[in-house]
């Protein structure tokens, strides 16, 4: 029976080659897009999976509640880990981690040259590897980090530094030209789909900082991980945490501190506690991709159902004869379902080829190691089988039910029509759904593109063009050379201005602090603080609206503030704050200037009250304003002067425009996806509509011929065939508009600065839908209207 069904299916596919091609093309493109989305989602949902005891692993994160709102950080005060270990009996293990960056040097050995590179290191307590289990290639896990100045390397770095990881233990690496770390262990590389990009792990006992005992200082680089005891529910820790906060924090603080236990499984998807963390993938983006995938699948299935039900009339005589010969309805249903399954299988094979061709672009778009491996990831193969079954059922069951239900007497006499099989109404409804989906994606694409254009053109309140940002070392010996380096760079042709700072005006590296303004009591909101020298306002073209810029100083002796701080303090005249004192960061100094507001975060966030001050120990960047016409030779000269002045350190530069662009990586990706998949849906709709109108034109050949004989013009015939489709498109847009409005409004709510949601994207989407319909239907209608009526009527 299977061989017979397969043979009949192949014959029918060959008989209706045009419709077979349209069905396979539409399904193949739709299935390829679904496969790409699934492969990417499989990669994203695999983050931080497979660790032993993963359901008991949590990260402690921080929040502060102020009258003006809430603030969040993935970091914690540095003494918190030890206090949690002492006060929470519910914890099996607690580990502190401190992230830092600096220069790693490995001495030359034999033919291997010296290695000098900038690297991130993680000061880590040994308990971390009891919480996050990894494979140790060399060294003893419980002893490797038990002494100061010891380091554990990943396999990748151990091979890089010492030729082979087996040679690493016992050797030394130098950090920041100050400290030698002895290699005491080698661990297997963390997988790419991990939130722990640790490659250099240093003993926590090595870390020295004044804030090790301070509960007032929180930085996102200081984290704490815990492993709960078996049977402990994280929700039950809320009451102990309240007691913990009451014990260690000052009750008189304006901001109310709180700590939350964040599950390991949520770290990769949580935007609130990300602080621009490693490879964050918001759940909203994942849901958006799933919705797009469902839309694509529905559109492809709708194409198939439309053409299959339209073709049903052509196959009515075949069904009638088979029923007379004794075929049961169940057998006919299986026959038509097997045809659908064959088409779906062929389409999926073509989709696999298209997916493989598209993967390099997908990897580049998402910056992830996305692989199409059926053996490496069997879930992809299972998904493909599920696709065949789901699509075959969705696309094939209703047409099979309709076709198998024909009356044999009517079928043999050619008395079956679209009206009496009830398929016409369904086809119209499916076309409406298809164009509604198309309209939603077109509107979404236009809104995303317009918002991205708005963000590119929106003034951030400072100059971002041709500004190079070069990392500078933070040790005291290097700081002695800062003045010399600045003088040398300032004299280079093409350099307009130079400034040392802790961060650019808009940056992912923002620090907030409590502060006092002309009083002994903290204000009820946080102050964004930036360390910068006297040329900061000039380099970034910040607009001064009152007072003056900072004077030259290596320590905090005065502040320049922004307009938002004045608004928060209810000061209407900028001159009124000049000479008033602000106390923050342990220093009190007068305000000497007010600058116009600038965005200190991305356009997702509102401008914060900000204070700028000079303090040399906080500088980690030198900002260089360049003449765009002399940028390339100037950058080469800057690198040369850097290497001459700070030969022990690694030169690393970036541009302000690149950093700004990185804030909107998610929106860039979603914009590309919307454009791509909206194009795919439009193409699928185009070929499906073309196939459908072709079939309708064939069915109405005699009607068209009679109308031509009676004097109908070609234009009138085209209008007749177009009219019903245009009505369906208009209805589809009326359905799509409220759906698209809800999605677009919710997406735009994620931006503090956004475009108004006007009617134009909706009108344009409707115009595009109408244009596609007119072109598609008119092309086929024109051909039908130009046929010779004699050919259609001569046998009547």
TrEMBL record:
<keyword id="KW-0472">Membrane</keyword>
<dbReference type="InterPro" id="IPR050250">
    <property type="entry name" value="Macrolide_Exporter_MacB"/>
</dbReference>
<feature type="domain" description="MacB-like periplasmic core">
    <location>
        <begin position="20"/>
        <end position="238"/>
    </location>
</feature>
<feature type="domain" description="ABC3 transporter permease C-terminal">
    <location>
        <begin position="676"/>
        <end position="789"/>
    </location>
</feature>
<dbReference type="Pfam" id="PF02687">
    <property type="entry name" value="FtsX"/>
</dbReference>
<dbReference type="GO" id="GO:0022857">
    <property type="term" value="F:transmembrane transporter activity"/>
</dbReference>
<feature type="transmembrane region" description="Helical">
    <location>
        <begin position="379"/>
        <end position="408"/>
    </location>
</feature>
<feature type="transmembrane region" description="Helical">
    <location>
        <begin position="332"/>
        <end position="359"/>
    </location>
</feature>
<feature type="transmembrane region" description="Helical">
    <location>
        <begin position="21"/>
        <end position="43"/>
    </location>
</feature>
<keyword id="KW-1133">Transmembrane helix</keyword>
<feature type="domain" description="MacB-like periplasmic core">
    <location>
        <begin position="436"/>
        <end position="635"/>
    </location>
</feature>
<feature type="domain" description="ABC3 transporter permease C-terminal">
    <location>
        <begin position="290"/>
        <end position="408"/>
    </location>
</feature>
<feature type="transmembrane region" description="Helical">
    <location>
        <begin position="676"/>
        <end position="698"/>
    </location>
</feature>
<feature type="transmembrane region" description="Helical">
    <location>
        <begin position="725"/>
        <end position="744"/>
    </location>
</feature>
<protein>
    <submittedName>
        <fullName>ABC transporter permease</fullName>
    </submittedName>
</protein>
<dbReference type="InterPro" id="IPR003838">
    <property type="entry name" value="ABC3_permease_C"/>
</dbReference>
<feature type="transmembrane region" description="Helical">
    <location>
        <begin position="429"/>
        <end position="449"/>
    </location>
</feature>
<keyword id="KW-1003">Cell membrane</keyword>
<keyword id="KW-0812">Transmembrane</keyword>
<feature type="transmembrane region" description="Helical">
    <location>
        <begin position="286"/>
        <end position="308"/>
    </location>
</feature>
<dbReference type="GO" id="GO:0005886">
    <property type="term" value="C:plasma membrane"/>
</dbReference>
<feature type="transmembrane region" description="Helical">
    <location>
        <begin position="759"/>
        <end position="779"/>
    </location>
</feature>
<dbReference type="Pfam" id="PF12704">
    <property type="entry name" value="MacB_PCD"/>
</dbReference>
<dbReference type="InterPro" id="IPR025857">
    <property type="entry name" value="MacB_PCD"/>
</dbReference>
